[in-house]
Amino acid sequence: MSEPFDVQNASKERPNQGADAEREQIWARLLQEVSTLPALPGVYRYFDAKGDVLYVGKARDLKRRVSSYFHKNHGGTRIGHMVSKIVRMETTVVRSEAEALLLENNLIKTLNPRFNILFRDDKSYPYLKIASHAFPRMSYYRGAVDRKHRYFGPFPNAWAVKETIQLLQKVFQIRTCEDSVYNHRTRPCLLFQIKRCSGPCVGLVSDEDYRNSVAQAERFLLGEPEAVMADLQRRMMDHAERMEYEKAAEFRNQIQALSTVLHQQSVDTVMDKDVDVLAVKVQGGRACVNLAMVRGGRHLGDRAHFPVHVQDHVLVPDEAEEPGGGESQGELSVPAADAADLRDAEALVQATEVRVLEAFLTQHYLGGAVPSLLILSHPVNPALIEALSEQGGRKITVVHQPREQRRAWLEMAIKGAELSLARLLSEEGSQQARTRALVEALNLDLDLDAREAGLDASAETPEEGDAAAPATPANAVHDPLAGLRIECFDISHTAGESTQASCVVYEGHKMQPSQYRRYNISGITPGDDYAAMKQTLERRYSAAGTKAARVPDLVLIDGGKGQVAMARDVFQTLGLPLSIIVGVEKGEGRKVGLEELVFADGRPKLALSPSSAALMLVAQIRDEAHRFAITGMRARRASVRTGGSRLEDIAGVGPKRRAKLLQRFGGVKGVAAASVEELASVEGISHDLAEEIYKALR
User: Fold this and answer.
1) For the chain, counts of helices (H) and of strands (E)
2) How far apart are CA 519 and CA 517, in angstroms?
3) How big is the CA angle at 337 (ends 336 and 340), to the nearest 5 degrees?
4) How far is residue 249's CA from residue 507's CA, in Å, rounded to a whole number?
5) Peptide linkage before 154 cis (omega within 30 of 0)
6) Which DSSP letter does residue 385 get?
7) Which runs of E-coded beta strand occur in 377-496?
8) What is the pTM for the complete model shown?
9) 10 Å Cβ neighbour count for 163?
C-alpha cells in the first residue's frame, strides 16, 4: 500500500528543482490537482507543453494511482523523464475497472501516447468469406466485416485462408469465381473439370444440393467435421437404397476426400473449436507476443507482434495496485522497490512479460472479436478478462497451465516467441553494426562521446526540442547512434512521363516508412533527372533554415557526379553543410556491390569492399528509395493513362487503394463495371467504401 499523499513532502522531492518559476507554478498546480482526485475507478492522461499525450493509464483508485507518480523523485529513470515533461493532466471517472479498461484502450488507439506500450499492426487479419448469393461464393477477405455475408476467422495469415479454401474446394466443390465471371459463363471452367467446383454457373448442380454443400462447409469451418461426415454417410446410403448409384458415388468421393483431410489434420485437431494461444517473451529490452490461432479445431499457424516503447522501461509490480491487479498498459508502473530488492532478475522479467501480455490483450481484443478460449503463457488481471467477456456478451475462458494438446500448442507458441525475438535482436544487432560501420567509413563528424553524454543527460533534463523534429528513439539512452538520421533520394519516370521523386528515411537502425515522402515533379524538361533532383531537394530543405524541417545527418543521392553537383548547388544556396551529401554511383558494369561513394565537399571517391557492412547499409537504403520511387511512378502513370482522377475524387481512396483497384480490375472502366462485393474483396476496401466507389462511378 502507498503512503498517504502529502503535497508538501512531494514538493520537496519534485524533479528539476532548478526549474524556472513557471515550471514551479505548473508543478504546484499538478500537486493540487492530484490531492483533490477521488478514490474511484477511472482513466488518467498526461500531456506535455505542446499538448501531446505522454501517457494514458487506468486505475481502480485514481487518487492513489496518480499520486504514486508524484510522491517521490524518480531521478533519471523513464518514469522521471516522463513526469518531468507533464504540464497538464486529465482524468475521467468510470463505474468499474472493466469500464476503465475499455476507455483506456480506446484512448490509447486514438491518441497514440508516447510512453505506453503500443502494438502496431498495419495489416488486419484475413478472413474466409462466404458471400450472400443464390450460389454463394467462397473467397479470401481482409477488411471490415458486416452482417450481409458469413465470415470465418480471423486467420493468422493469407496462406492459412487460401489453404483452407483449397481444402473446401476439394471436399465441397464450392465456387470461388467472382460474380462478374460467374454471370457470363456459358460453359464450365477448368475447376469443374478437375472436380474443384460443382459448376453452378451453367446449372450443373441444383440449388438444394449446392446449398447443402455450403452448409456442410460452414459446419466444417465451425469445427464439426465428424457431424459433416455422418451426414454425408447418411445421404450416401439413402441414394444407394434408392439405387441412385451415381449420386451415391459422388457422396462416397466426398467422404473419401474429407477422410483424407481429417487424417492429415489428426495431429492438430482436438475438441476445441476456436482458440487463441498467446505467449510472451522479453529479452534485451525488447518484447514479443506470439499469437497462434486454432480455427475449427485446426492449428493454422502463428504471428509474432513486437511492441514499441518497451526499451528502457523497468516493469515491476507497484504499490499503487493490489497484487496481480497491475495496470493493463502499465509499462510505466512506479516501482515499490528497486530491482535489487526483488528476489531475482527472473521476477522482474516475469512482471514485464505480464504487463506486455495485458497490453496486447487490451489493444488486440477490446473492440474486436475474441474466441471463447484463450491459452496464455502468464496469468493476467481478472478484470481484463471480465471486460473481454462483457464486451463479447459471453464467458471467455482463460487457461495458463494447459494439458495435453493445449499444452503442446502453448509450448509451440512459446518457442515461436523465443525464435522470433532472437531473430529480431540479431537483426537489430546487425543493423547497429552496419550503422556504426557506415559512420566510421564516411568519417561522419558526429562526436559520439558528446552525443552519448547528451542522450544520457536528456533522460534526466529533457528539452522540448523542435516541434517538427521526430521524437528520439526509445533506446537512444543506451545507443548514441539510434538518433542518426539518413535520408535518401531517387528519381523515377518512364521516358520522361510521370516523373516522381522519392525520399526514404533511415533512423533508429531501421527504415521509417511513416516518414517516407513522394514528390510529383513538374515544370521541367521531360527526362531531366538533374532538374528533378534540384526541385526535390529545394522543396525538401528550403525551410530547414527556419527549423521547420530537420536537416539529417547524412543525405544519400542515387547518382554520380552530376546529381551530387546539383545537390551541392542547392545546399550552398540554402546554407546547409556540404559534408552530409553522398552520391551512390553505380560501379563498373552497373553491378551490385561495386558502387562508389561520391562526396560533395571535394573528398575523393570511396570504393568500399562488396562485403563491407557500410556498403550493405547504403545499398539497403538506396534500394528502398528506388522501390518507393518506382511504385509511386507506376501508380501515377496508371492514373494518367486510365483516367484515375475519377477515383482520386472519392474520399477514402488514396494512392495505395487506387493502385490496387486499378491493378485488380485493369483500369477505371473495370472498376466502374465491378459490383460492390467485388470492390469490397480488394484488400483495404471496406464494404462501405466499396458502396461509395460504386455510386461515384455510376
Assistant:
1) 23, 19
2) 7
3) 155
4) 64
5) yes
6) H
7) 397-399, 485-494
8) 0.55
9) 15
Residue 581's CB is within 10 A of a number of other CB atoms, namely: 23
**Residues 6 or more apart from 295 whose CB is under 8 A from it?**
152, 153, 155, 221, 223, 273, 274
**Residues 88, 29: Cα–Cα separation, whole Å:** 9
The CA distance from 120 to 431, in Å, is: 21
Among residues 11, 26, 268, 67, the alpha carbon closest in space to that of 163 is found at 268
* CB-CB contact of 176 with 191 (8 Å): yes
**Three-state secondary structure call for residue 56:** strand
HSE-up of residue 511 (Cα within 13 Å, Cβ side):
17
User: Quick check: helix, strand or coil at residue 490?
Assistant: strand
What is the spatial distance between Cα 626 and Cα 537, in angstroms, rounded to a whole number?
16
**Residue 644 and residue 447: Cα distance in Å, rounded?**
50
Q: In angstroms, rounded to a whole number, what is the distance separating the alpha carbons of residues 43 and 533?
A: 50
Contact 515, 505 (CB under 8 A): yes
Collapsing DSSP to helix, strand or coil, 692 comes out as: helix
The tens digit of pLDDT for each residue in 465-488 reads 333 334 444 444 456 787 889 999
Distance of alpha carbon 186 from alpha carbon 145, whole angstroms: 32
CB 311 within 8 A of CB 409: no
Tell me the three cell numbers of residue 475.
533506446
For residue 3, give the nearest of 80, 67, 58 by alpha carbon. Answer: 67
Q: What one-letter code names the amino acid at 588?
A: E
The alpha carbon torsion through 234, 235, 241, 245 (nearest 10 deg) reads: -130
For residue 76, what pLDDT is reported? 59
The amino acid that residue 119 corresponds to is F
Residues 245-258 as b or e (16 or more Cβ within 10 Å = b): eebbebbbebbebb
In 201-338 the beta strands, taken as DSSP E runs, fall at 275-283, 286-295, 298-305
pLDDT digits (tens, 9 = 90+) for 203-248: 888 888 898 888 888 877 776 766 777 777 777 787 777 787 777 7
d(CA 535, CA 524): 9
- Could you tell me the domains of the chain? 7-111 (3.40.1440.10), 127-264 (no CATH), 275-422 (3.30.420), 448-477 (no CATH), 485-635 (3.30.420.340), 643-696 (1.10.150.20)
Q: Taking the CA of residue 71 as centre, how many other CA atoms within 13 Å lie in the half-sphere pointing to its CB?
A: 18
DSSP 335: B
Q: What is the DSSP letter of 612?
A: -
H-type alpha helices, 265-381: 345-365
CA 425/CA 614 separation, integer angstroms: 19
Distance CA 19, CA 22 (A): 8
**What is the length of the chain?**
698
User: pLDDT (tens digit, 9 = 90+) per residue, 504-556?
Assistant: 999 988 888 888 988 888 888 877 888 889 999 998 988 754 444 578 899 99
479: nearest Cα among 459, 504, 505: 459
Give me the residue label for grid cell 537489430.
428
* Amino acid identity, position 391: Q
For residues 234 and 558, give the distance between their C-alpha atoms in angstroms, rounded to a whole number. 69
Backbone angles phi, psi at 513, to 5 degrees: -55, -30
Residues 315, 318, 322, 324, Cα dihedral to 10°: 20
Angle at 400 between CA 396 and CA 401, to 5 degrees: 130
DSSP 24-39: HHHHHHHHHHHHT--S
Q: What is the C-alpha to C-alpha distance for residues 122 and 141, in angstroms, rounded to an integer?
A: 16
Burial status of residue 591 (CB atoms within 10 A of its CB: 0-12, 13-18, 19 or more): exposed
User: Residue 578 in contact with residue 603, Cβ under 8 Å?
Assistant: no
Which residues fall within 8 angstroms of residue 389, CB to CB, at 6 or more apart? Answer: 395, 396
Give the β-pairing of 138-141 and 606-607: unpaired
Residues near 614 by Cβ (< 8 Å), separated by ≥ 6? Answer: 434, 437, 438, 440, 441, 442, 608
